[in-house]
Write a structure and sequence with these properties.
It contains nine helices and twelve strands. The chain is α/β, with parallel strands linked by helices and about 250 residues long. It is elongated and about 60 Å long.
Length: about 250
């Protein structure tokens, strides 16, 4: 069953399994601590296959989330953002475009602000990792002021593999770095580029950094070592976009 649209949850073993099997943008699955059995195991397997995280909570909290006691020990919270597939996005792109990729960016406000900047700069898509990052929810939508609805959003469980797919489609991969790398205002940007931002505290993971074609940085006064990831991505988006590009 499903609650009101604004609540954005489904509950019941069959209903949650159907949502996962249909590829609906499920944000997270919640089980009661007592949940067990064949149907519960199937839902766990589907969630793992889809890269959807799941948690175990007290049955009382589960009932509050579902708005009913008839939840059958499982509730799924849905993403308010309709997700796209990388393949479909790549198939419909123009020759010149920018894709934003978030490697385990966690804070809600950062994700929302980056989405807003990406839409404002005319980015072709936003790709984010569902592992170690933050799921898209109402707070992300609010932080983006609704701009996230104006660009395709791709969730991936294989971040590095999808970077390779974009390289094969003619994209150059640029990782944002606090230090090192090329001054992004001096880069001769190719027509197709991916801008990758890393986690707020750890930056780009070593494997992701290795997968990039180049690192770029924002030239700053020596008194300031780095910028917030959302601010840095905003600067990079408009640096890559260049003047006079509509």
């Amino acid at each position: 069953m499903q609650k009101k649209d604004e609540d954005q949850v489904v509950w019941g073993r069959h209903e949650v399994a159907e949502a996962l099997e249909a590829g609906h943008p499920v944000q997270r699955v919640y089980f009661s601590r007592e949940a067990s059995g064949e149907h519960i195991d199937k839902i766990k397997e589907l969630a793992q296959k889809r890269g959807v995280r799941f948690d175990f909570i007290e049955v009382g909290k589960l009932g509050k989330l579902a708005g009913t006691r008839a939840h059958q020990d499982v509730v799924a919270r849905l993403s308010p953002v309709r997700l796209a597939s990388l393949e479909d996005v790549l198939a419909g792109l123009e020759d010149e475009c920018t894709i934003v990729a978030l490697d385990q960016v966690r804070h809600l406000r950062n994700v929302g602000m980056i989405a807003r900047s990406a839409a404002a700069a005319g980015a072709a898509a936003l790709l984010f990792s569902s592992r170690g990052g933050h799921p898209l929810n109402d707070e992300v939508v609010k932080a983006s002021s609704g701009a996230i609805f104006h660009l395709p959003v791709i969730q991936t469980t294989h971040f590095g593999r999808d970077l390779e797919k974009m390289q094969q489609a003619g994209f150059w991969i640029y990782g944002l770095a606090a230090a090192g790398g090329e001054d992004m205002f001096q880069v001769d940007w190719p027509k197709r580029r991916v801008l990758v931002a890393g986690n707020e505290s750890k930056g780009l993971r070593p494997a992701v950094q290795k997968a990039t074609d180049a690192l770029v940085r924002i030239p700053m006064a020596p008194e300031v070592k780095s910028l917030n990831v959302a601010v840095a991505m905003s600067v990079a988006l408009f640096a890559a976009r260049g003047p006079g590009v509509s």
